[in-house]
Amino acid sequence: MAYVGGVSEPGCVFCNALANDDDVASLIVHRGVHAFVILNLYPYNTGHLMVVPTEHVSDPAALSEAARSEVAELTASFCTGLRLVMGCDGLNIGVNLGSAAGAGIADHLHQHIVPRWSGDANFMPIVGDVKVLPELLPATYAKIRAEVARLKSSADSVRVVLLDPDRSGLFLEHDTFPRVRLTEGEPVWRATLTSLAPIAASCELLGWGGPPSTSFDPIQPPILTLSFTPREGGAPPYRLQSLDDANAALSEADRAVLAQAIGRRG
Ligand SMILES: [Zn+2]
Questions:
Q1: What is the pLDDT of residues 219-231, one digit of tens each?
Q2: What is the third-level CATH fold of 2-134?
Q3: Which of 124, 208, 235, 239 is 20 to 30 A from 92, comparing alpha carbons?
Q4: Which is the catalytic residue, given 34, 108, 110, 112?
């Protein structure tokens, strides 16, 4: 519910997001040359993305040919990606030009991509303005960002920051974050949960664990942060360590990842 409060900010939300280095905070999942892809802070449905030209224009006619073409390319790629990651049955794609047509941010052109599931909105008219949010935005963001990172880095594994549910400890494997192998055709997040399930009493995706900026993706395989409780009898070879001990054991790069994961979780 923290995301449905309706916080307003000065200036253009898309231009502000672009100017911010922290793509996790801005919900940007991909930055291209003439366009970027961002999660909607007020989604109509889980996984609601927007493909936005970097240029602040209100009409497609004002866009360069290169920008128009990149918006079309990104729309096609992210439709394919959303089918895989979110497992949706269909998608709505659309642009509202001008506030008369329903554009919330009329000054900066943006194309919506909204995942749909059979029967997902059948009860919506009954509850009026209430929006259906079966998943928190940080988890949705992590799922999509992890898939983009996997594509860019050609990674065949994901690293997992496994936090104790009360965030006082961390599970390490040989003094580093455990690594989970990915399988072809299965989204990163599901491969991760499937792989951890046999040794977990509970396991929940909390968010993206990698660097904030999407620009680092080419050299970074995906990292996810999860809340993890092992089954009775432990989860060898993972070993629970206090955050202090973990910090002493980790490499400098991994310490930064841990700080990021803890920071994001408050
Ligand atoms: Zn703008």
A1: 778 999 999 999 9
A2: HIT family, subunit A (3.30.428)
A3: 208
A4: 110
149-264 to CATH, choices 3.30.70.1270, 3.40.720.10, 3.50.50.60, 3.90.79.10: 3.90.79.10
Dist. CA 105 → ligand 1 center (Å): 9
Gap from CA of 108 to ligand 1 centroid (Å): 5
Instruction: Measure 67 CA to ligand 1 centroid, in angstroms.
Output: 14
- One-letter-per-residue 3-state SS of the chain: CHHHCCCCCCCCHHHHHHHCCCHHHHCEEEECCCEEEEECCCCCCCCCEEEEECCCCCCHHHCCHHHHHHHHHHHHHHHHHHHHHHCCCEEEEECCCCHHHCCCCCCCCCEEEEEECCCCCCCHHHHCCCCCCCCCHHHHHHHHHHHHHHHHHCCCEEEEEEECCCCCEEEEECCECCEEECCCCCCHHHHHHHHHHHHEEEEEEEEECCCCCHHHHHHCCCEEEEEEEECCCCCCCCEEEEHHHHHHHCCHHHHHHHHHHHHHCC
| Residue 110 a catalytic site member | yes
Ligand 1: distance of its center to the CA of 206 in Å? 30
